[in-house]
Amino acid sequence: MPIDTLERFLAALSPHDRDQVRRQPHDEQERLAAAWEEELRTDTDLDTLSELSPAAAESEAAKRVVEGRFE
């Protein structure tokens, strides 16, 4: 996975969630970034949001991935 995917994922997170993810091993960070990309690709609700605000769609997908991992 290109590092820019991980960087984009981290940028889409809230500061609190970003800190949580950065404390994880690099392999786990990459796994979460891949899950984030999959969420963006497959969730049709995010397609509509993405048309209005790509950054908001990325943030929502990142939030969902982190919530699924840490909560």
Automatic annotation (TrEMBL):
It comes from Streptomyces shenzhenensis. This is Uncharacterized protein.
